[in-house]
Amino acid sequence: MPIRWIRWLVLGVITAATFATVPTGPASADPVDDIPGGLESFYHQQLDWGSCNDAVLDGAGAQCAGVVVPLDYNRPDSRTLTVAISRLPATDPARRHGVMLSNPGGPGGPGLGMMVDLRDRLTPEVRARYDLIGMDPRGIGRSDPVNCALPLPTMLFSAGFDAFGFARDTALAAALAASCVAPDPEKARQITTRNTARDMDIIRSAFGERRLNYYGGSYGTYLGAVYSQMFPQRTDRMVLDSAMDPDRYWIGTYQDMGAVNEAGLDDWANWAARRDADYHFGSSGPQVRAFVEDMIRRAATHPVVGNGYLIDEHTVPMMLLALLSNPQKNADLAEVVRLVADGVSGLPVDLEQLKTKISGGVPMNASGMAAVLCGDRAAPRDPAWYRRNIESVRATQPVFGAFANNITACAFWPDPIEEITAVHNSAPALILQATGDTRTPYQQGLALHEDLTGSRMVTLADTRVHGVLRADLSRCVNETVNTYFRDGTLPDADITCRPDPGSLPDH
């Protein structure tokens, strides 16, 4: 592949898509007796706490440790990995309920610092009861990361408009897969959700806990659901925010993102049209959409390249996708559209400003994302399958269909080491889902709710947002979550919440 293609594609596509200590002694014996064979030393290990060597974590009073886990759980006497975790201890040890582990999503999101942010959404009563635990999952961040030789910021691109563009993405996907697997095939194939769930159970035991409490967002909901299926007697209070349907993970999840992001674009276009005096994209929603679609076509014929960055038909839809997941970012999205439109029209454009606008709060690790997704579920091998799917939705999904159905590195990855997890159990859980979620559509939350028969669902109505538990969005949601974490009390029935007045841009 020409070096200039790699340099162009590496650029500025950010998908976004994403914590005084209490001593913890060793768990002298696993509180639950059925330790899998050969894993006793892992379950009984002592954690060595120290500085996190991170300004935010250290400033928050967190400490960090490494948890040793088997690379291959079928061969626990062979290679090991070290999973990095952080801890913000319960503020009232006398009322401590246990540990609350977390995952920010992705997959590919490092979560070591997640609890520094999440704790601000928890009441003092909840903070008193839990050690808040952040974790970089295996293969990501500080946890013995997979490092693909091809340094792409994302494994996800839009296929563009023609056969040449699709062929370019196919070649890039194949090159990415080879660069991830070839350096260490054994390690690359063991970075999976099921193995991360096993790591979580070792973490639980290392704290001497009988059960695990958990908060997961986006992909983190799938990880939590898999843990509840594999370790049903060891789950306690679980909150699953913006849930994935386990039956559609992961190919179906991306396919479902096409239609909901088209709807999200229409919602944003109507907002921008009411501000035509500011942005000059058009005075009606259809006019704004037409402006955006024409901008992408111009990006195909007049790409912008500079400082290792690329603006073209493959990357622009991903820039839009990064900001459509939160209506509070409407103005940022308008600025991105203006920057891109100016750039493809030949005007000077500040590419560093563009990168700042589209970068997510939790940077995704493309190598870790590829390893987890491709290691969890086999993808179709035939490129023609993807091309047919792309063409079948062009009319109804003109902006996002070529992303939602595009080929990825998984088409060239080795077969998974295990079958995908079928989730169906009665573990209690609180599922949070917005009706207009552009990353994990509402029907996916409904599907997980059916799979987890002991769950309750909180619907955030009439809201285009991914990530429902936010400090400034819905008091109804936050009170429900905090009541559950405080008392272990799920609502008697599913409930519907709404955003607080003034929390979203006016419509």
UniProtKB/TrEMBL annotation:
**Protein source organism:** Nocardia fusca
Keywords assigned = Hydrolase, Signal
Name-wise, this protein is: Alpha/beta hydrolase
Q: Name one GO molecular function term.
A: hydrolase activity
Give the InterPro entries listed for this entry. Answer: AB_hydrolase_1, AB_hydrolase_fold, Pept_S33_TAP-like_C, Serine_prot/Carboxylest_S33
The Peptidase S33 tripeptidyl aminopeptidase-like C-terminal domain extends over 398-497
Family label: Belongs to the peptidase S33 family.
Q: Which Pfam families match?
A: Abhydrolase_1, Abhydrolase_4
Ranges of residues in domain AB hydrolase-1: 105-274
